[in-house]
């Protein structure tokens, strides 16, 4: 009744980032940006990136949505900033596997910082909440303006 | 000794719940509290048994076999048409067209009445509180056939704005007003007879989407003065895959067929086909036989309890829920219509609707969260999504208390 059993999904770090995202806001200089939306629930996330020397120097986002999608966007900024696009694409695939299965073979600080979201794997209808910001980021890397809905 | 005449048994919700096998299921180890009946209602044993019984003892295709099984199955299928006619107080069974659901019924009207009878430049008027099923078919008609689609606003309380609707009608050239009889988001009832009279005053036909309304109150299409009335079986405790279009006979006669194929013809040659009489003209192909039989069982079940008893129970539930939910800090109930039923949408400060739904689910409580297939209404209300609890004849006051207690915990959790 006190929802202690949902702490696997709503860990403190998720609640904290979901309530007050540290990185929400538009970048002053934008090289590429893309939006993703989840038509089922109305969540929307717009991600901007700025490149420097072939790497993604800054990431910003504007979003509306549930605690999971907001926290995921915020943690994504921390995990992906400073990486090369190919590196981010790999990290995204590992993150998708993490939220679908709850597990990952990868062992580095980037995936470690995303592990608070692994509890989503127990909630199939919420997986898209966690992957939405990443889908927008990948679309921006590909030069698209809209993430495909799947 | 004086015989005391039998009186109707008081509404015994526990006895009713025993008729719904699924209600004894547990979810995540918790007792199921199903507050999502407006999306699709659970099925009583009578419906389950009618459908499996037909498959086990009495099933063949309808309207074609010259054999015992086909004749019996045709009788069973066609008797549901009588039941639906009685349910809606329709003057004739021939005015009942079976469809797959409400969506298909509205598409049938948009295609057949819209393209076949309405003229280019004529208007269809819908309201701001329509389900996508009563928006998209008219947009498709607009784009394909040059119909003008106009939107009647609602008030901030979530009721139809009559003055604005009349202003649209007064501009003329409105062929059809298509409007929900009860909002699936706000719970508001449309004063149907008043809307119908207004539409007719300006020469327009009137269609009601009865998907929600027919579940909770007795409907009389003649006293309302409707021209079209549509609903779906699965919200009315029946199976999926069966819906109903009722329309006045003279309109159905005038309308061209919707889908072509078997069962809807009178004769076929390669040069020309002629159509069957109404309603069969609109029922191409083998129909949803078992689903119709299930719908018939659902209607019998409702009739045995009676709409008066159902409406009284649900009104009491709704009053109780409005009072309990209003008392929760930070919870906003969306829509304050005077005449409303057991569909309550709400938001909560600091908690997104999906997070609310996930937490409630951990307590075994099923609610819906999102835009409820009514995105334009969400925009009108300035919202992205709401959570929605909806009630049925099997809902209890204790379940609403449990919902309210759980929502208090949700609020604390996200504080």
List keywords for this structure.
heterodimer; A: 150 residues; alpha+beta; Sufe protein. Chain: A; globular; B: 415 residues; alpha/beta; Aspartate Aminotransferase, domain 2; 17 strands
Which SSEs are present, and which pair or pack?
The complex is a heterodimer of chains A (150) and B (415).
Chain A: H1 12-19, E1 32-38, E2 43-52, E3 55-64, H2 67-80, H3 85-101, H4 109-114, H5 127-141
Antiparallel strand pairs in A: 1-2, 2-3
Helix pairs in contact in A: 1-2, 2-5, 3-5
Chain B: H1 13-18, E1 26-27, E2 30-31, E3 33-34, H2 45-57, H3 68-87, E4 96-99, H4 102-116, E5 123-127, H5 136-145, E6 148-152, H6 162-170, E7 174-180, H7 192-201, E8 205-209, H8 213-216, H9 221-224, E9 228-232, E10 243-247, H10 249-254, E11 265-268, E12 273-275, H11 289-305, H12 307-326, E13 331-334, E14 343-348, H13 353-362, E15 365-366, E16 368-370, H14 375-381, E17 386-390, H15 397-414
Parallel strand pairs in B: 3-15, 5-6, 5-7, 7-8, 8-9
Antiparallel strand pairs in B: 1-2, 4-10, 9-10, 11-12, 13-14, 14-17, 16-17
Helix pairs in contact in B: 2-11, 3-11, 4-5, 12-15
């Amino acid at each position: 009744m006190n929802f202690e059993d949902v702490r696997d999904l709503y860990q403190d770090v998720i609640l904290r980032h979901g309530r007050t995202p540290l990185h929400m806001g538009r970048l002053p200089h934008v090289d590429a940006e893309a939006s993703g939306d989840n038509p089922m629930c109305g969540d929307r996330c717009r991600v901007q990136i700025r490149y420097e020397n072939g790497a993604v120097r800054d990431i910003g986002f504007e979003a509306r949505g549930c605690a999971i999608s907001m926290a995921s966007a915020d943690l994504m900024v921390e995990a992906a900033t400073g990486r090369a696009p190919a590196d981010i694409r790999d990290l995204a695939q590992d993150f998708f596997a993490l939220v679908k299965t709850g597990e990952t073979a990868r062992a580095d600080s980037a995936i470690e910082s995303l592990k608070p979201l692994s509890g989503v794997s127990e909630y199939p209808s919420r997986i898209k909440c966690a992957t939405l910001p990443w889908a927008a980021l990948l679309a921006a890397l590909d030069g698209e303006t809209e993430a495909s809905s799947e | 000794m004086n015989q005391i005449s039998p009186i109707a048994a008081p509404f015994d919700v526990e006895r009713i719940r025993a008729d719904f096998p699924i209600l004894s299921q547990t979810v995540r180890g918790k007792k199921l509290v199903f507050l999502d009946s407006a999306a699709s209602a659970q099925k009583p044993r009578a419906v389950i048994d009618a459908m499996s019984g037909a498959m086990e003892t009495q099933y063949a295709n309808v309207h074609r076999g010259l054999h015992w099984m086909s004749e019996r199955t045709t009788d069973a299928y066609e008797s549901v048409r009588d039941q639906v006619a009685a349910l809606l107080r329709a003057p004739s069974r021939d005015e009942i067209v079976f469809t797959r659901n409400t969506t298909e019924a509205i598409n049938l009207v948009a295609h057949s009445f819209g393209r076949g009878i309405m003229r280019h430049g004529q208007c269809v008027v819908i309201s701001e509180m329509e389900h996508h099923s009563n928006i998209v078919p008219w947009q498709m008609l607009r784009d394909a056939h040059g119909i003008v689609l106009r939107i009647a606003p609602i008030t901030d309380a979530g009721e139809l704005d009559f003055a604005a609707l009349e202003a649209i009608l007064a501009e003329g050239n409105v062929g059809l007003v298509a409007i929900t009889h009860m909002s699936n988001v706000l719970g508001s009832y449309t004063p149907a007879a008043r809307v119908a009279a207004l539409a007719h005053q300006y020469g327009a036909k009137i269609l009601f989407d009865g998907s929600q309304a027919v579940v909770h109150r007795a409907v009389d299409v003649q006293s309302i003065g409707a021209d079209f009335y549509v609903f779906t079986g699965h919200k009315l405790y029946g199976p999926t895959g069966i819906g109903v279009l009722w329309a006045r006979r003279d309109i159905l006669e005038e309308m061209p067929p919707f889908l072509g194929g078997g069962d809807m013809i009178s004769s076929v040659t390669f040069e020309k086909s002629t159509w069957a009489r109404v309603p069969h003209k609109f029922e191409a192909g083998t129909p949803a036989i078992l689903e119709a039989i299930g719908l018939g069982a659902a209607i019998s079940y409702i009739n045995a309890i009676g709409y008066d008893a159902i409406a009284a129970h649900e009104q009491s539930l709704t009053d109780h829920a409005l009072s309990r939910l209003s008392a929760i800090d930070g919870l906003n109930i969306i829509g304050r219509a005077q005449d409303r039923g057991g569909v309550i949408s709400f938001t909560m400060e600091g908690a997104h609707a999906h997070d609310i739904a996930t937490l409630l689910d951990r307590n075994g409580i099923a609610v819906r969260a999102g835009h409820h297939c009514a995105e334009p209404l969400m925009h009108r209300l300035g919202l992205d999504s709401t959570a929605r609890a909806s009630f049925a004849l099997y809902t209890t006051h204790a379940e609403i208390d449990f919902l309210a207690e759980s929502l208090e915990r949700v609020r604390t959790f996200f504080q």
